Amino acid sequence: LEMRAVLSSIKWRSRQLDLVGQRCVHLVDSQVCMGAIAKGRSPSSDLVFVIKRINSLLLASSLTLLVAYVSTHDNPADAPSRWHPK
Hints:
Layout: H1 2-15, E1 23-28, H2 31-39, H3 45-61, E2 64-69
Parallel strand pairs: 1-2
């Protein structure tokens, strides 16, 4: 799911004409996903499928993806998906 979130972000950014050819930063809280995106490969067939789609979109839109690791507790995107007691 983390890889698919990155893919969705790349799809959105590639549709924005003013972002074509730019660098973009994506924060991930999975070191596996970060490593797979950075290397462009993975032994997992599920991850390879998504990585190929990410790479093709990056190539077509001339985007440069910078992936940074952030811990789960510090990730601003995880707050809405976490259950917090009131």
